[in-house]
Design brief:
Keywords: Signal
Distance between the termini: 18 Å
Helix content: 40-55%
Structural class: alpha/beta
Protein name: Extracellular solute-binding protein
Signal peptide: 1-19
Radius of gyration: 22 Å
Number of domains: 2
Shape: globular
Number of strands: 12
CATH class of the largest domain: Alpha Beta
Strand content: 5-15%
Organism: Nonomuraea terrae
CATH architecture of the largest domain: 3-Layer(aba) Sandwich
Pfam families: SBP_bac_1 (PF01547)
């Protein structure tokens, strides 16, 4: 166990996070916990109440915290933003190693929860009011924040996946939104033959996306339950995983899709200038793209969204990319009170409405997902299309959840390496999957796991 904890710490120090939200305001770390706090970004008006400290980076966190404090007469929240993603994780890792300095509640991306859970840095909140809020979230949302039978976070935002496309390009080349990946390849070939742009992009730096598409085809990369005495299932070269890599490798080799790293100025410039006909992404993408300058000026009103193409139309599978939760840390002086905060933050109507109206989050709280205003929203980025009703809400409702591993960043980095080789043409998709399996399985064994 000690070897694994040290490995997790080293992994986090080198991690780079891909997040769906933009960073919020500044502020330093809270220095008090449980019965008072200093250095809060927000102002606490009910000073006679116990205080729970928390870190988070949602852009509208100030509003969310103020709403909670205003409505609550049992506890108050002292919020600070110590950085987004990896910046926050590095500080949390330092606090874990020191045994002090962590907040009571922390915002964490769901795929990072097992990494901190294995270090005993998070609290199972199932015994602190879970039953009262269980029905507020889907089964898939709860699975993403669980490790084994324990629950280590409250799901806030997610990333049900879909296919964003350029209406003008589809119309020019007489393309109908493909419903299957076979149709996607056919449409890509049709567009190339007509002298059109690449149909999409297969990037090495979006391993979470590649994993999601493999899961959609039936892969189960990891099986992990801490109750199983250090055992973990690693299955990265099954037939489904190989076929997905072979598929995208073939599209790249044939020039049907680009291979530009995503989340770069070059890629965004390409999206703005119509270099790609489609963008396979998640429900947070419209907000991200809008913030990056897409959908403005000459390309205003040119985007639409369709359901994610399926590998097997007779057995449709919805997948997710991204999402964050509020977790209670093991350094919380009053875990029950901290859990109350985790359950209550971003759960009131005003905060949720502000979040989805301003494209800060795609809410996972069913009170928001089922809100007629949210469902029927005419999304400006998609030229007034009711994207939630037609695409994102059905995808979110059908999502079943994923089992993440406690060394997710190593896996993502190893995937990037193999996809890069696939794009370069030095390996086939099947070979890339076999190499990835050997790499990650060996790493798991080095950390003391028994690999199944």
């Amino acid at each position: 166990m000690k070897k694994r904890l040290l490995a997790a710490a080293a992994m986090l120090a080198a991690a780079t996070a891909l997040v769906a939200c933009s960073p919020g305001g500044g502020g330093g770390a809270s220095t008090a916990s449980g019965s008072g706090a200093s250095n809060c970004t927000n102002t606490i008006s009910k000073k006679n109440l116990p205080v729970v400290t928390m870190w988070g980076w949602y852009p509208n966190m100030q509003l969310v915290v103020d709403n909670f404090n205003k409505q609550n007469n049992e506890v108050q929240v002292c919020w600070t933003n110590v950085g987004q993603g990896s910046d926050e994780y590095d500080k949390f890792q330092t606090a874990i190693s020191a045994g002090t300095g962590a907040p009571d509640v922390i915002m964490i991306e769901m795929d990072r929860i097992p990494t901190f859970q294995i270090q005993n840095a998070l609290v199972d909140i199932k015994k602190y009011g879970f039953d009262a809020v269980k029905a507020d979230y889907s089964e898939g949302a709860w699975k993403d924040v669980s490790v084994g039978d324990a629950v280590y976070g409250v799901p806030v935002d997610g990333g049900p996946m879909a296919m964003i496309y350029r209406k003008d390009i589809f119309e020019k080349y007489d393309i109908t939104p493909p419903k299957t990946w076979a149709e996607y390849e056919q449409a890509a070939q049709k567009m190339k033959d007509a002298g059109g742009p690449p149909f999409g992009d297969f990037a090495a730096n979006v391993s979470a996306l590649t994993m999601a598409l493999q899961i959609q085809k039936g892969a189960a990369p990891f099986t992990y339950d801490p109750a199983q005495q250090g055992s973990i299932g690693v299955k990265l070269n099954d037939q489904a995983s190989k076929e997905v890599l072979d598929y995208w490798g073939r599209l790249a080799k044939n020039g049907l899709v680009g291979t530009q790293d995503q989340f770069t100025p070059e890629y965004i410039s390409g999206v703005i200038n119509g270099k790609y006909a489609t963008y396979i992404s998640a429900a947070w993408a419209p907000g991200y793209l809008t913030g990056a300058g897409v959908g403005k000026g000459e390309d205003t009103g040119k985007f639409a969204v369709a359901p994610l193409p399926q590998w097997d139309p007779g057995n449709p599978v919805q997948v997710n990319w991204g999402g964050s939760a509020f977790s209670v840390t093991s350094q919380a002086k009053n875990p029950e009170l901290a859990a109350k905060v985790a359950y209550g933050l971003y759960a009131d109507e005003e905060s949720l409405t502000h979040g989805w109206t301003n494209q800060v989050i795609f809410p996972l709280n069913l009170k928001a997902i089922n809100d007629p205003e949210f469902v029927n929203l005419k999304v400006a980025f998609f030229d007034g299309q009711q994207a939630n009703k037609e695409v994102y809400v059905p995808a979110a409702n059908a999502y079943k959840g994923v089992t993440y591993s406690p060394f997710g960043q190593y896996y993502f980095d190893a995937m990037t390496k193999q996809v890069s080789a696939l794009i370069e043409g030095s390996v086939t998709g099947a070979q890339a999957a076999d190499r990835l399996q050997a790499d990650v399985a060996n790493y798991a064994k080095e950390q003391g796991f028994t690999v199944q």
